[in-house]
Amino acid sequence: VSLPEMSQLRVDIANLGFYKNGPHPDIYLFSSSSSVPSVTRQIFIDHHPVLCQQTYDQYILKAPETSSIMGFKVATLWQAPEINPVNGKARSIPILNPINKYGRVFFFAWFGFMIAFLSWYAFPPLVSIKTPTRHVHPMSNTF
Amino acid sequence: LTLTIKKDLHLSGNEVANSNIIALTATLLVRLVAGPACDHFGPRVVFAACLLLGAIPTALAGTIHNAAGLYVIRFFIGILGGSFVPCQVWSTGFFDKNVVGTSNALTAGWGNTGGGITFFVMPAIVDSLANSRHLSAHVAWRVSFIVPFIIITFITLCLLLLCQDTPTGKWSERQLAVQHNLQAHGVRAGVVNVPGGITDRKVEGATTPTSGDEKRDEEADLAKAKHGSFDHEATMGEQEMLETAQGEVVIKPSFKEAMAVVFTPQTAMVAMCYFCSFGAELAINSILGAYYFKNFPKLGQTGTGRWAAMFGLLNVVFRPLGGFVADALYRKTGSVWSKKILLHSLAIICGGFQIAIGVLNSKSHATMFGLIAGMAFFLEAGNGANFALVPHIHPFANGIISGVTGAGGNFGGVIFAIIFRYLGVNYGKTFWIIGVITIAVNIAVCWIKPIPKGQVGGR
């Protein structure tokens, strides 16, 4: 079976003794229970032989290269974010996607705070907006 | 508007001023309480509570008929201002350390523009009620408060019904969920303190360190089956996962623990910086129109009021910029020190601008508005950078530190407003006094390490 070069490598943890402190950025750790169709081959990382599985699903699931401005991926503004696997926090902000779980909370956090001002800051402009004296200014009561 | 609330209720200038101070004090108290409440009940519930409790006096605002009534209503409407704390804690709860500065600054900055928007919207509502619905001004301003009441209640219900406490679901199950996630990723569990009230067979098994590898695999599969994993997961090392689980899950605080968090130098550092930056923003917001009117009487009250509202509206861009730059620096350097250095640098430059404004006391439009806009950038970006740093300091008690910091900002507003009141129309002098205080405070706290000794998870 020959796979396109784009597909990513999955490396067995057992063969990665010298990378115990953290995975190589290009490598996805996989558990042996994985049932994804794959081929096994040997590659060299820093001259160490490593058994790898090259999988189909990684190739299929890999997101297409998105356009970026100064390293900022524009598509993260609406795409479902990448997730921290432990606490489930998002690693990008889907500002333009109020349907997504994270985008929804983002929207209600700022919008909820904004509408609080409608009543909280309502009095100052209404209390004395037409007062003709010089030193009482409509904005002078804002706090 | 032909009749104002002031005339309608026959208020004196002092009574108006008192009602302002009461509103500010209420917000300060609510922020202090909202912080620990967020850690106790979860930010979503506290957010909704702040908004609903503030919506009730909003609906009753029309019943005011004397100064005492105004004091009471404005005190309870001040509860709405406390919603800042759950807003920030909620945003911290959903966004990871690499983007939390941006998300906090965006939610706070966009929210803050509500102040500027209200300045235009509420008078427009009253005008419309008076002109199109032919209500007398006496009735129109009373009816107008129904509009924010309906909006706040509706949005709060949506917020409650459509959103979650945490990305993992219920607030009460946050520790359990993290434990399951750890298991599902094959990391040895038993490091997160699960509250005793929750009994779960699998968790009990996991906390006894007798399980061998086989059992561990089995548990991982069980946890995965029960809890599932997220769609697009980031890759993380085992050590990083453990630290996240140990240090970043919010713990229900006891009074003693809460006090221990409040009285750390790190909490004092962010609270003092926020005292200067947000305090100055509140106080300047409240006098800027009058200051412009004094220096540029030709613009008229409407014109100077609008120019002054710009200062608050700049929050749309400037505060998020502060958080964004803080995040970019943190990602580049990998150190929380970068956020801290940014925070103090912005504050000290802002102090410089304030001194320049005060000393020049310019009568030129270009100089004055230019300096104010420059000051606004460093001031508001500083606010953003501050709440980019806060989530790193005590991640297990993020609500408490956020509440104290937010209240510190309000306290600064009170103090600086008193200085403005004391110096009367000598606005320039107050400006440079605030600038000097800002620079002095920031230099005084700049030596404090951003992360307390022995802390886990915030780095």
* Radius of gyration computed on alpha carbons of chain A: 27 Å
Q: Which ranges of chain B are low-confidence, i.e. pLDDT below 50, for 5 or more consecutive residues?
A: 191-211
Q: How many alpha or pi helices of chain B?
A: 20
Helix content of chain B: over 70%
Number of strands of chain B: 0
Count helical runs of chain A: 3
Order of helices and strands of chain B: HHHHHHHHHHHHHHHHHHHH
Alpha-beta content class of chain A: alpha+beta
Q: What's the average pLDDT of chain A? A: 65
- Cα separation of the termini of chain B: 54 Å
Would you report the number of β strands of chain A? 6
Describe the sheet with the most strands of chain B: none
Q: In angstroms, what separates the terminal alpha carbons of chain A?
A: 71 Å
Proportion of residues in extended strands of chain A: 15-25%
Explained architecture:
The complex is a heterodimer of chains A (143) and B (459). With 143 residues, chain A is an alpha+beta fold. Helices cover 22% and strands 20% of the residues of chain A. Chain A contains three helices and six strands; from the N terminus they run ββββαββαα. Chain A has a four-stranded mixed β-sheet with strand order 2-1-4-3. In chain A, a hairpin with a 2-residue loop joins β5 (68-69) and β6 (72-73). The longest helix of chain A is centred in the C-terminal third of the chain and has 20 residues, at 101-120. The N and C termini of chain A lie far apart (71 Å). Chain B has helices at residues 5-8, 13-41, 43-60, 67-77, 84-94, 100-131, 137-144, 146-162, 174-184, 201-207, 213-227, 238-247, 255-262, 265-295, 300-313, 315-333, 336-360, 365-393, 398-423, 427-445. The longest helix of chain B is centred in the first third of the chain and has 32 residues, at 100-131. Helix content of chain B is 75%, strand content 0%. Chain B is mainly alpha-helical. Chain B is built from 20 helices and no strands. Classes of the chains: A alpha+beta (143), B mainly alpha (459). The interface between A and B is large, with 62 and 115 residues.
